Amino acid sequence: MANLPFGRRVGSHRVNADLYPAALREIARVLPGGGRAVLLTDDKRHFRETVQRTPLVRVIKEVVLARGGLHPSVYVITKRGR
């Protein structure tokens, strides 16, 4: 599980634009077949766009939370089938 920077209190949307693709590539590299990763972020637009551009992973579940006045999402991702 990873609590990714939201781009509000920590980090920025600009930094996330570089961080999220790198994080997803690394997750795809180390995730075993059938494995899942759980990620938390409020920078939903950047995260969703990054997943769409990353052919290695896909979102299998999203859950929206209420946390500190924000509404981040928890994403469960897995490797795309070949």
Reconstruct the topology from this structure.
Blueprint: E1 2-3, H1 13-30, E2 37-41, H2 44-53, E3 57-64, E4 73-79
Parallel strand pairs: 1-2
Antiparallel strand pairs: 2-4, 3-4
Helix pairs in contact: 1-2
Assembly state: single chain
According to CATH, what is the topology?
Rossmann fold
* Number of extended strands: 4
Number of helices: 2
Percent in strands: 25-35%
Largest sheet: 4 strands, mixed
First-to-last CA distance: 24 Å
The total number of structural domains is: 1
Share of residues in helices: 25-40%
pLDDT < 50 runs, ≥5 residues: none
Mean pLDDT: 86
Task: Characterize the structure shown.
The chain contains two helices and four strands, in the order βαβαββ. The longest helix has 18 residues, at 13-30. The protein has 82 residues and is of the alpha+beta class. It has one domain (2-79): Rossmann fold (3-Layer(aba) Sandwich), CATH 3.40.50.150. The mean pLDDT is 86.
Give structural attributes.
single chain, 27% strand, 2 helices, Rossmann fold
Summarize the structure.
By secondary structure, the protein is an alpha+beta fold.
